[in-house]
Amino acid sequence: MIEVKNLTRNYGTTIAVNDVSFSVKKGEVLGFLGPNGAGKTTTMKVLTCFMPPTSGTATVDGFDILEDPLAVRERIGYLPESTPLYTDMMVEDYLSYIAEMRRIPQAQRASRIKRMIDVCSLRGVLKKDIGALSKGYKQRVGLAQAMIHDPAILILDEPTSGLDPNQIIEIRQLIKELGKEKTIILSTHILPEVSATCDRVMIINEGKLVASGTPDELQNEAAGDSVLYVAITAKQSDIESTFANINVIKASECISHSGGRYSYRLVIDKSQKDCGASVFQLAVERGWVLSEIRSEQLSLEDVFLKLTTGDN
Ligand SMILES: Nc1ncnc2c1ncn2[C@@H]1O[C@H](COP(=O)(O)OP(=O)(O)OP(=O)(O)O)[C@@H](O)[C@H]1O
Ligand SMILES: [Mg+2]
Question: Whose CA is nearest to atom 11 of ligand 1?
Answer without folding.
Answer: 16
